[in-house]
Amino acid sequence: MTAAAPLPDRLGGAPDGKRSLRLWLRLLTCATTIEQTISQRLRDEFGSTLPRFDMLSALDRAGEAGLTMGEVSRMLMVSNGNVTGLSQRLKADGLIEHLPGADRRVQRVRLTAAGRTRFAAMARAHEHWIETLLGGLTGVEAEDLTALLEQTKRSLRAAVHEDAHP
């Protein structure tokens, strides 16, 4: 396996005054690279997309009870319209089914047996791809980065909360 090319420095070594901007660009570059790679591999190996994988994953975690379309929409952070179109295609492919409910306005969906089998294969491949993509980090580096990203997440939530409540 060949060594990965270094990620580009879009700011050309910006001074410390631009530290937050540099950090954001590094995070964005890493996330985009991972997402594009995973998306391409899902297309190549499974004829699928990342949104399909994400919905199957959410339904897999939900188990037999399934999820309402609104719950799927909130979990995937997409519109109800996007989830509706996605669910129609997954249902046509035999990977999910609609559950009867007391309220016809609230649709629940869950994986079919074929959907569970298909998702299990995709999840194994996905886990391997992520391990490969992040395999250049030692265990300690991965733990340190995880801790730093958790701290970043808390900082972001606090900043967003402050902006929402001036």
How is the topology of this model organized?
Layout: H1 19-46, H2 50-62, E1 67-68, H3 69-76, H4 80-92, E2 96-99, E3 108-111, H5 113-133, H6 139-164
Antiparallel strand pairs: 1-3, 2-3
Tell me about this structure.
With 166 residues, the chain is mainly alpha-helical. It folds into two domains: 40-133, Orthogonal Bundle (Arc Repressor Mutant, subunit A), CATH 1.10.10; 137-166. It has six helices and three strands, in the order H-H-E-H-H-E-E-H-H. Strands 1-3-2 form a three-stranded antiparallel sheet. Strand 2 and strand 3 form a beta hairpin. The protein starts with 18 loop residues before the first helix and ends with a helix.
CATH topology of the largest domain: Arc Repressor Mutant, subunit A
Arithmetic mean of pLDDT? 89
Structural class determined from secondary elements: mainly alpha
Number of structural units classed as domains: 2
Shape category: globular
**CATH architecture descriptor name of the largest domain:** Orthogonal Bundle
Organism: Brevundimonas alba
Keywords: DNA-binding
GO biological process, one term: response to stress
Pfam families: MarR_2
Brief write-up:
The chain has helices at residues 19-46, 50-62, 69-76, 80-92, 113-133, 139-164, and strands at residues 67-68, 96-99, 108-111.
Keywords:
about 170 residues, Arc Repressor Mutant, subunit A, DNA binding, three-stranded antiparallel sheet, 2 domains, mainly alpha, WH-like_DNA-bd_sf, DNA-binding MarR family transcriptional regulator
